[in-house]
Amino acid sequence: MSLQAAPPAEVSDLVWCQGAQDCFDWPDLTDATGYEMYRGTAADLPSLLDAGIDSCRVGAYVVSTSGYRLGEAPRAGEMLWFLVRAVNSEGPGSVGDATTGPRRLDPSGDCVTSCQDDLLNGYESDVDCGGPACPGCLDGRTCLVPSDCVSGVCTDELCECTCVDGIWCGDETDLDCGGPVCLPCPDGWMCAVPSDCQSGVCDGHCIAPTCDDGVMNGEETGVDCGGPVCPPCG
To answer: N or C: which end of the chain has fewer CB within 10 A?
Structure first.
């Protein structure tokens, strides 16, 4: 007499990977041909007991009892929960029982990474920024590579912009100069206001000192006078 085929049993004992809390392990089931992982929020938990949407599918894994490396983190004060369901040719297995009854998994579909969902997910380096899809992160946010940052500078996994990094970033009006923090720019470089320039004269670019620009600059000893080029101050 042969045993009737059936969906696999419940996946139990979902635990952190050894030595890390950014990845899951679970025991292999002999009758499973694959596994699916689902993610929900605390607000979704009651829907695990009814027909309400309760989660989204993070991914599917073929005969793998490990491997889902966390790519998201909850907002402050909130939590995420995860379930793994085994599958085989007969369909999905059980997702077990909650304290008040059997769970009913009703996912919305595959999880979609959004750059505006207030979650650290997908390939983001920080919440809703960084990675190949989202905008660059502002200074002080977490990064993995320079392209994760608006500034293009990632140092010790933090985005930053300095006046000596060789990158045109932050409030600089040109490379490592201008703006409210860095030193003024030399003649010919980009500027927004006169204070961005060593000469104190800005017309989109820093203008070289002249003897009639209304600014004491260059080698002048007074406004548009004195020094080796301009007429004597009188």
So the answer is: N
Judge contact between 140 and 160, C-beta under 8 A: yes
CA separation for the pair 143, 126 (Å, rounded): 7
pTM: 0.51
CB 176 within 8 A of CB 164: yes
CATH number attached to the domain at 15-110: 2.60.40
Residues 200-229: tens digit of each pLDDT: 999 999 999 999 999 999 998 999 899 999
Give me 152's structure tokens.
Answer: 């293009």
Dist. CA 127–CA 110, nearest whole Å: 20
User: Do 172 and 179 touch, CB atoms closer than 8 A?
Assistant: yes
CA separation (Å) from 15 to 22, 43, 68, 135, 188? 11, 22, 11, 33, 61
Residues 82, 40: Cα–Cα separation, whole Å = 7
Q: Residues near 52 by Cβ (< 8 Å), separated by ≥ 6?
A: 46, 106
Contact 38, 105 (CB under 8 A): yes
Give the start-to-end residue ranges of the domains of the chain: 15-110, 118-160, 168-227
